[in-house]
Every structure is written in C-alpha cells, then in structure tokens.
Amino acid sequence: MTSRKADPGGPMGRREHFSAPLWCVADGTWRFVTLPEEMSEVIRFESGPPRGFGSVRVEVTIGATTWRTSVFPSAGGGPYVLPVKAAVRRAEDLGDGETVTVTLRTLDN
Questions:
Q1: Cα separation, 2 vs 54, whole angstroms
Q2: N or C: which end of the chain has fewer CB within 10 A?
C-alpha cells in the first residue's frame, strides 16, 4: 500500500511525498520502490518526451539522503518504479519489505 501527498504548486516540478515498501527483483540485485499510480500518471502526462527505456529524471530524498536518478515505467505501462541504490539503503539502514518515505521531484518538465 502506498500513501501520497504533494506540496503546493504545479502538478510536476514540485515535491511529491509518498510511502511504499522497498522490494527486490527476483535475482536479488536491484531494489525498488513503486510510485503511486496517480503520481505515475501525472509524471507520464507532464514529463515531456520519454528518454531511454521511458525513464524520467528525478531528484529523490529518503531520510537524510538526496540524490538524482531516474524512474522507469514498470512492465505493461504500469506505475513508475524508483531504483534505490545500495549506498542509500546502507546510509538509511533500509531492508527489503520496509516501508520507505520518499520525497520526489521531476527534473524533465
């Protein structure tokens, strides 16, 4: 389950906040957080022309860690997924299945 709220301002380029579980792909190499469906639809609509693999550049904060990365559409055009690199997981002491609170801002609009 995810929850979402946004800071005042236009629909994208503002900070979006949500919470969702951290999950691992089957081979155990990558960890992701799935964005809420409504947020994904806004990003898809307002982010401009898609980049490689349909990615959208974002700035992300989890806990005290802020970095720039990209979100990617999940298979079949579902919600976007946010990769969470090992350095962030270590810095924030995050484990698989743990609910993560994310602040996200798109950079492509």
A1: 22
A2: N
Q: Please give the average pLDDT of every successive group of 10 residues along the chain, which has 109 residues.
A: 49 80 92 96 81 88 97 90 96 97 87
Count each helix (H run) and each strand (E run) in the chain, helices first. Answer: 2, 7
- What is the chain's alpha carbon radius of gyration, rounded to the nearest angstrom? 13
Backbone angles phi, psi at 68, to 5 degrees: -110, 140
pTM: 0.83
The number of angstroms, rounded, from the C-alpha of 15 to the middle of its chain's C-alpha atoms is 12
- Under 8 Å between Cβ of 81 and 70: no
**What DSSP letter does each residue of 68-87 carry, written as one string?**
EEEEEEPGGG--EEEE--HH
The per-residue pLDDT for 19 is 97
